[in-house]
Design goal:
Number of domains of chain A: 1
Strand order of the largest sheet of chain A: 1-2-3-4-5-7-10
CATH superfamily of chain A: 2-enoyl-CoA Hydratase, Chain A, domain 1
Order of helices and strands of chain A: EEEHEHHEEHEEHHHEHEHHHH
CATH class of chain A: Alpha Beta
Low-confidence stretches of chain A: 270-274
Helix content of chain A: 40-55%
Strand content of chain A: 15-25%
Largest sheet of chain A: 7 strands, mixed
CATH topology of chain A: 2-enoyl-CoA Hydratase, Chain A, domain 1
Oligomer: homotrimer
Radius of gyration of chain A: 18 Å
Distance between the termini of chain A: 38 Å
Shape of chain A: globular
């Protein structure tokens, strides 16, 4: 990692990894910290295949780069991320998507749940769907006071994802996870903090700075030790996480396989804006 | 489920299930929500065999009724429930009870821990013993500001019940569960909320209305999805819950089998009022 | 246990157990409660072999003494405990320690994780390292408003200890445990309470009195019942705790075995004061 290096996933990684086809993330390396910034503001940083690949590559590269001590995820523009790209998801449900499109999500989850170094997130504005559930794989979440999170699975008629059926109860407690998952209610920054989903809430506009300071502190410690600490923390739960994802993916496959419950049209109608905020 | 149907368990279920011998619950079905109201105010809604059966039947019926999307438990009168009927429990301990009396409690727990749909509770006033521990099987608890909970097991000299040795630490955290279980202290509404035992506390007198509104919101979502979400949330813990109940029931059996520790007389003296509030 | 008995571990146990070589703890038995007070204020109650043995003996004795219903841990002087004696730990890392020195820590942990009765702690001032992590084995922690806790493992470049990789996430939630373990940040009394690490925070100077009152309440209940309640609470987690300690101890052994990562000199430099407050 070159200190102070900056590149876009469109440019390819400076060490020679192939570029993704479209710009999706900005990556900046400095003082032992890799910043991965979702940068697709025209689609509220929604995750399509290119975004999944760009973030996954950013994580996998950081995992093996000895100069990276910690990683920060954030979103450019006004939101963290609106979650899965509903247009692409509807195409998947309808069988009209790029055959590779379905590979992006599980590959990102694999990278998140196996990420060996301290992982932080600086969250402002909307975190919807995956923009919420990915936080359960993040070690240290800092919230801008504008942050608000929602898991629209019940409303959309789909199963939970990303091991959230296990991890949201584990992170937030059963009652608050039920409210999030079964009632699809919005969670504001103060509620998320109180629920244990974040380490702190900061003034609007300061969340990236606050998160980077924490990430630099962690990166200043011996990387071998922080990796060991994280490895030992995760070890107790890894098998449960894998099992939860397997249950959720089976439920999703069953839903998609049944024409009566395939959410394709619902997803498409979600595009009209009802789910957005 | 007929929308707007109301009946008492004394009348039998409108679909023809046999009536229980005495009135114990009111059941109301409306807008996709089944309300099961404990209605034995003269005994502070204590659970005797007739109450166990009436509530269990209400749950089992709701589980298989496609028109029910969510269920709300509540108590009529001034309390949620004083828990197990100590007169009947003393008779059980003394060997003078109806031979069926011991079957009510485990059947209700089976129904609670296997209940496949979102389960809510509207709690006001006292929740004692089972009136507290059953809440750990409820997905969404809303508390009236008058609610207060107590697990009198340490004071009564009996083991914990209803998988509470597992679920109270899981729901409230170890420290607060220790305070509840080992010190038998009262927990007020604010403390229960802070501990993660409930999703919100509302003004006195509004808890049923607030809970029903939340239940209707959940019932408005596709039932298949909310059932899947709950099934996936519970799947990670079902075996542990079964194992915890087995350990607790073995401890209880050992206690009752030993004349030196059989709590029969203690239970009877608890009737004199000391345990009531 | 003689009511009101007081002795120092230097004097030997009144029932005839051999004294440890140096004074390390005060033990007082009264009204069903054993108080074990760390009393090495000249070293901020740091745990050396003599301290490990004195506290372990105090616990093992209480476990089998029918007149003890609950146990309280506290520290004399201005702190709870500064944790492991870094001088002794550096000697261990350097191979210059008493061959027995390494046996103190695991023996204390065995005693803590198997302690069969309600265990409380009255914590004021600094709880560093083991002074923090041991609290995850305590059922009821009461904090003086001056209490502050820190786990300096990341900063020292060592793995977590005392099953803290499992128990801090379980007790505090993932996010706060990550902050404690990965960022080595101080946690003050209010934060610890909010995180679920303690049952209450009390005014400076009143913590021992408040904890003893709670311990006496618990000790007034049938000891058989409180032991059963604790046994059932712990049963669900015992295997995970044992497994977590085994993982941590393997990580520690690997660290010490590798000259490049042996923390001996870092520990010695920690002595100069940087880690103390």
């Amino acid at each position: 990692m070159s200190t102070g290096a900056r590149w876009s996933a469109r440019d390819g990684h400076p060490d020679g990894a192939p570029p993704v086809s479209e710009h999706r993330v900005d990556i900046e390396d400095a003082e032992g910290v890799r910043l991965i910034a979702f940068d697709r503001p025209e689609a509220r940083n929604a995750f399509d295949l290119a975004m999944y690949r760009a973030v996954t590559d950013g994580l996998l590269g950081a995992a093996v780069d000895d100069s990276v001590g910690s990683v920060v995820l954030t979103g450019r523009g006004t939101v963290f991320t609106a979650g899965q790209d509903l247009r692409e998801m509807a195409a998947l449900a309808n069988g009209t998507a790029d055959p590779e499109a379905g590979t992006g999500f599980p590959a990102l989850l694999d990278a998140l749940q196996s990420f060996p170094k301290p992982l932080l997130a600086a969250v402002h504005g909307v975190g919807m769907g995956l923009g919420f559930t990915m936080l359960a794989h993040v070690d240290l979440v800092v919230l801008d006071e504008t942050a608000r999170l929602r898991a629209p699975f019940a409303e959309m008629g789909v199963p939970p994802e990303a091991a959230s059926s296990l991890l949201l109860p584990a992170r937030m407690g059963w009652q608050r996870a039920s409210l999030a998952l079964l009632a699809s209610e919005w969670i504001d920054a103060a509620q998320a903090l109180e629920a244990g989903l974040a380490v702190r809430v900061v003034e609007a506009g300061t969340v990236l700075e606050a998160t980077m300071a924490l990430a630099r502190r962690i990166a200043s410690f011996p990387t071998r030790a922080t990796q060991e600490i994280k490895r030992l923390m995760v070890a107790a739960h890894r098998e449960e996480i894998v099992a939860a994802r397997a249950r959720e993916e089976a439920a999703f496959a069953a839903l998609f396989a049944d024409p009566a419950t395939n959410p394709g049209s619902g997803l498409a109608s979600g595009l009209s804006g009802g789910l957005r905020d």
